[in-house]
Amino acid sequence: MAARLLDVPEVDARLPEIITAYRAMYAMAADEGYGYSLELIGYSRRDGFRLAAAFDDDDDRVLGFGLGFTGLAGQIWTDSLAAAMDPGVSNEWLGGHFEFAQFGVVPDMRRRGVATDVYEVLFADLPHDRGILTVIETNVPARTFYEAHGWTTVHRDFYSPSGLGPYRVMGKQLHGAAV
Predict the structure, then answer these.
(1) Which of 7, 62, 90, 153 could form a disulfide with 21 if both were Cys (CB 3.0 to 4.6 A apart)?
(2) Structurally, how many domains does the chain consist of?
(3) Are the C-beta atoms of 71 and 128 separated by less than 8 Å?
């Protein structure tokens, strides 16, 4: 198994494989998850976009991936977070941050180091000075992973614009320079 960054042309070329992994990560049926391809294409056109993926050594299938981009005012998620957070917290964490937007591993490869490998590749040499992620409050394994990697809670009980949640908003000081 090897994890590496993919550039936008490779993300576009491997989109069906990434969608297959996405469906597996979230236990979706074969006919679900197609809307995510449009979302992923949109993400890949944002400033600071990065996608790291792990591939099986034998059949080159996508075992897991993580992605993010520069979070800016005017993006629906950043704006929704800003509206929900205390202004002081929002000013400290949002705007020019790395938005850690998606992360997961296919079920048969969990607890084998895939997530850590993808995470380390994704976050290596980021130019951002801070990162933000949201995680469903009840997803204890994900929260535990993030906490083990230095993420702390900056806001609780966030609901998405579509009403999903509650999410926990977590932040981390990164080692890059501010963007």
Answers:
(1) 62
(2) 1
(3) no
